Amino acid sequence: MKVIHMTSTLPVKPQTIQDNMKIKHLLLSAILLSITASVSAQTIVTVAGEEIPTDDFVAMYKKNTINDKDKITVDEYMQLFINFKLKVKEAEELGFDKKPSFVDELNGYRDQLAKPYLVDSAANERLVEEAYENSKYDIRASHILINLDKNAFGKDTVAAWNKIMELRDRALKGEDFNELAFKYSDDPSARDREYQGRRYPANKGDLGYFTAFNMIYPFEHVAFQTKVGEVSMPVRTNYGYHIIYVTDRQPAMGKCTVSHILLRVPENHTHKDSVQVMSYATSIYDSIMNGMSFEEAAKKYSEDKTSSEDGGRLIPFTCNQIESNFIEAITKLNNPGDVSKPFFSIYGCHIVKLTSKEGFGPYDAEIDKIRHKVAQSDRMALEVKSLCDKLRTKYNFTENVDNLENFIPTILDNFDSLNSIKVENDKVLFSCDGKSFRQSDFVKYIDKVKDKNTENSSASVRTLYSNYVNDCLLNIEKDGLAKQYPEYRLLLQEYHDGILLFDINEEKIWNKSTTDTIGLKNYYNDNRVRYFWKDRAKATEFKIIDPTAENQVRKLVKKNTEDREIVKTVNDKSKTFRIMMDAGTYEFGSNAVIDAVPHKKGLSKLVTVDGNNYLVRIYEILPAGLKSFDECKGMVISDYQDYLEKEWIKELRNKYQVEINHSELNKLR
After folding, report:
1. Is 646 buried (19+), middle (13-18) or exposed (0-12) by CB count in 10 A?
2. Which segments of the chain have a pLDDT < 70?
3. Which pLDDT score is estimated for 10?
4. Pairing of strands 602-603, 50-53
5. Domain spans of the chain, in order of start
6. How many CB atoms lie within 10 A of CB 247?
7. What is d(CA 56, CA 461) in angstroms, rounded to the nearest whole number?
8. Which helix H or strand E contains 198, and what residues bound it?
9. Mind spelling out the 3-state secondary structure of 129-164?
C-alpha cells in the first residue's frame, strides 16, 4: 500500500499528462512536516457551510508558507484556501468521495496514519527489551516438530500435544534427542533429502546457530528461555508443536567477514577419503603457518572457485547464514588475521582466516535498530492482541458465544457462496461501544477477507471470528482518534481533501486541457499574440577544448564539411575530446554564446564565454514571428489550464457561499 503525506493543500497545476503523474507522486509521497497550531475554537471562515476553526487555518498556513521564499500574506493565503475548499466541496457534491477507489485509498492511508496511535506502549516496551536481550547472544538448538494446522482445534490439537509430549518424555529419560528428531520429526530437514537436484544430509533436528529475529517469534521466545542442555515444553507456531533442545549459547558474533580455503570430499566418501583430505588440508595449514600468505594458498589450493580468485574472501554473514561448524571454528578466532586449523562441514574441509567480527553493540547504538525490527516483525501480533484485550474493557465488549457456535454450520455449508446465505434471525454476535455486530456482518467480513487458501473448517471460522472482533475493536479506536488527537484529525482531513483535490483537478482541468483539442486550438487562436518568436539564429557551437584544433575546424568549415563530420575528424585517434558541439535554433537573448558573436551567417571569430572558447557557425538568421501551434503547444496547454481554473473558480464562488470572520483574520495580520 502506498502512503501519502500532503505538503500542500493548495492546487498544483501540472503542465503535461506526464507531469500530472509526477504531481500526484509528489502530492502523495512527500514528507509531512510537523504541524504547530495556535489554540482557538473560533471559526475564521465558512466555506459552503463548512466552518473552519482558526487553529486549523493557522496550522495549514504555517505549513504551506514554511519557507521564507514562499511566504505570502495571510490575506493572500485566505483566498487560495477558499479556492481549495470550494474545489473539495464540489468534488463531494459530484460524489467523488463515494467512489470505491477513493474510499479504498483513503482507508489505506487512514490505517497507515493510525498505526502510531494503535499501540500498547507497555507491551511494545517489553517486546523491545526482550529482543535487545536476545540479540546479545547466538544460541544453537535442535527441535522436533509435530505438524498441526494453525487453525486446528479440538481433538487434532490434543493428538499433536500428546505426541510431542511423549517425545519430550523420552528425551528427558535419556534417549538421544537428535535420533528422536531423525525418526519422528515432521521437519523434512531432519532426514536425508534432495532439493533441486542436490542431496542434503539429515540435520537430525539441528537448526544451527541463530539469534533474535532469525526465527518466528514464539519459537525464539521459548528457545531463549531454555537453558543449555535442557528440553523445552512444547511451543505452538503456525507449523505445529515444537520441543526445543538448546545445545550452546555464546555472545553474539554479529556480522562476520572471513576468507576460507575449501577442499571437497567425494559425495559418497569413505573414512579413508576424509583422512586423506584432512591430511592434505593440514599440509596447506602448515605452509600458511610457515609464511605462505593465506590469499596465495586460497588461489592455489581452494576448490571454491567463487572465492578463490579473491583470496578466499566470503561475503559478510551472520550466525544463521553459515554452517554451524563454521561458527564454532570462528568463535575460536579472536583477532583479525587469525587462521583456524582445518575442520569439516557438510561442504568439505575448510581452513578459515578471520577478517573482522562486528559483535553486538552497546544499548544506545542498537536500541533504535531493535525497535525498528520489532515493529516489522511477527512480534507485533502480540502487541495487537494486548491492545485488543484492553479495548475490550474500554468499549464494554460482550459476546454471545452460542450465537456464533449455532451459526458456524450455516457458514460451513455455504462457504463457497456466502452471499447466498439468508440470515433470517440476524442474531447479535457481540456488542461494544454501544454498537451491535450481527451474524450478517460477520458473513460479509468472511466473504471479503477469505481467499483460496482459507480452509472450510470450524477452526478456520473461529480464527476468522477472532480476527473480526479485533478488527472491529481497532476500527472503533481509529474512529475515536480524531477526537483524541488534533494533529491526527488534521492529517486525516488533509488526506481526504488532498485526494479529492487531485481527482477533481484531473477531471476539470488537467485532462480537459489536453483532450479538449477544439478548446485548446480556439484558445491559441484567441491569444496568438502572446506566442511570438524573437529574432533567432540557426547555428552550431563548437567548444574548442584543444587550442590547436581551432585552425582545423576553420579549414573543415571552409570545405563545407558537415558539423558532425568535423567533430569526428578533429577528435579522431585522440584519447580525449579536442572539440565538442551543440546545435539548434536559438532566440537572441537566450544563449550567452550566440549573443557573444555577430548575428550574421558564417563562422565567427573565437569568443570566450564563462572561461570556455567557442567558434559559432551560423546557418540562418530567422526574423521574429508568430509561433505555430505545434511550436508552442506546451505553453498553450499551461495557459489554457490557468484559464480553465480561473473560470471554474468564478463558477464555484457564485455557486457556494463564503463568509470570512474578519475579526479573527485581523488577529493573524
Report:
1. exposed
2. 1-41, 66-70, 196-198
3. 37
4. unpaired
5. 137-251, 256-357, 393-481, 532-626
6. 16
7. 45
8. strand 198-200
9. HHHHHHHCEEEEEEEEEEECCCCCCCHHHHHHHHHH
Bridge partners (DSSP) of residue 620 are 538
Strand order from edge to edge, sheet including 235-237: 206-210, 137-147, 240-251, 235-237
The Cα–Cα gap between 536 and 589 comes to 9
> Is 621:601 a contact under the CB 8 Å cutoff?
yes
| pLDDT on residue 647 | 92
β strands within 502-628, DSSP E:
532-533, 536-544, 579-587, 602-603, 607-609, 612-622, 625-626
CATH annotation of 256-357: 3.10.50.40
Answer yes or no: are the C-beta atoms of 541 and 582 closer than 8 Å.
Answer: yes
Pick the CATH number of 532-626 from 3.30.390.80, 3.60.15.10, 3.10.50.40, 3.90.76.10: 3.10.50.40
Q: Which residue type does 367 have? A: I
Give pLDDT tens digits for 496-532.
999 999 999 999 999 888 888 898 999 989 998 889 8
Q: What is the DSSP letter of 118?
A: S
**CATH fold of the domain at 137-251:** Chitinase A; domain 3 (3.10.50)
Angle at 207 between CA 201 and CA 210, to 5 degrees: 140
Which triple of cell numbers denotes residue 326?
563454521
Predicted pLDDT at 67: 62
The answer to whether 259 and 299 are in contact (CB under 8 A) is no
Task: Look up residue 40 and give its DSSP letter.
Answer: -
Distance, in Å, from the CA atom of 4 to the CA atom of 498, rounded to the nearest integer, reads 9
The cell 523420552 sits on which residue?
Answer: 170
337, 232 in Cβ contact below 8 A?
no
Nearest to 378 by CA among 254, 479, 239, 472: 239
The label of the residue with cell 570430499 reads 265
Cβ-contact 641, 509 below 8 angstroms: yes
Hey, do 256-357 and 532-626 end up sharing a CATH topology, with the first three levels equal? yes
pLDDT at residue 11 in the model: 34
Q: Can you read off the three cell numbers belonging to residue 599?
A: 548575428
* CA dihedral of 378, 232, 229, 323, whole degrees rounded to 10: -40
pLDDT of residue 200: 75
Q: Is 544 exposed, middle or buried (0-12, 13-18, 19+ CB in 10 A)?
A: buried
Query: How far is it, in rounded angstroms, from Cα 512 to Cα 14?
Result: 12
Q: What is the pLDDT of residues 138-163, one digit of tens each?
A: 999 999 999 998 877 778 899 999 99
